[in-house]
Amino acid sequence: MRVSAIGCTALLLLAVAACGGRDSGGGTTGTAASGQCQGQQTTGITDTSIKLGGIYPLSGPASAYGDIPKGIKAYFDYVNAEKGGIKGRKVEFVVRDDGYQPPKAVEEARRLVEQEQVFALFQTLGTPSTTATWDYTNQQKVPQVFVATGASQWGTDTAHPWTIGWQPNYISEARVYAQYLKTEKPEAKVAVLYQNDDFGKDLLGGFTQAIEGTQIKVVAEQSYEVSDPSVDPQMRNLAESKADVLLNITTPKFGSQALAADAKNTSWNPLHIVNNVAASITVLKPVGFENVQGVVSSSYYKDPNDPTWANDPEMMLYRQKMQQYAPGADPNIPYHTFGWAVASSFHKAMEAATCMTREGLRDAVRNLKGVKVDMLLPGVTLDTSQSDGFPIESMQLMQFKGERWELFGEVIDTRKEFGPLTG
Question: What predicted TM-score, i.e. pTM, was given to this entire model?
Answer without folding.
Answer: 0.89
